[in-house]
Description:
single chain, alpha+beta, Nonspecific Lipid-transfer Protein, Chain A, 2 domains, 10 helices, 50% helix, 8% strand, globular
Amino acid sequence: MTWMETERAALVETFRRADPDAPTLCEGWTVRHLLAHLVQREHHPLRQAADVLARPRPGRERFLGRLVERARTPAGYAALLETFAAGMSAWNPVGWAGDRAHHVEYVIHHEDVRRGRGLVEPRVLPPDQVRAVWAELAPLARLGYLRSPVGVVQAVPGGPRRVVKRAADAVVVVGDPVELALHAAGRVDAADVDVVGRPQTVERFLRWSGPAEVARDGVDVS
């Protein structure tokens, strides 16, 4: 079983227990919206692309909205969840990239559901899965911090570190790999990280990475 499959199974159970109308960390999206997004991403990628290109307000997407409406009843929600739980068909090219394209995505969206009502105690993941999150995080981090006004280094306490943006002045974002993934994906308020560096450099970074920079969520872990 791949980490992508392991995390999907865990996320399915969280979706089963969650209130479909509860908020998530994704602005404008409830748990129902987030489940519909995952199904659309894996089964209707052209419709997802059309929604992204239209740039609607979150929660007002045309094609995503159709899936959400079909899932308004308990039976409709259960059916949508079963579609996600079944995974992608073998012919779907979206799934061919495996863990590298989907594992961190699922981890982040799992926390979007869990922490939507406020910071929740972090899950304890198997050490090998945590190492996998770290190994797969680099592309997301480079994209997430692309427009940072200062350099950015990610570091795990007592563990590895990587430069994700080079510059003369840099901050170090310190946290466990899941927290680093959340921060890089724009879930700044929910991520349990420390930002260290020269005071003026940290201030510039925090001004950029704060709530006003919510557009970084478009880094697509969506």
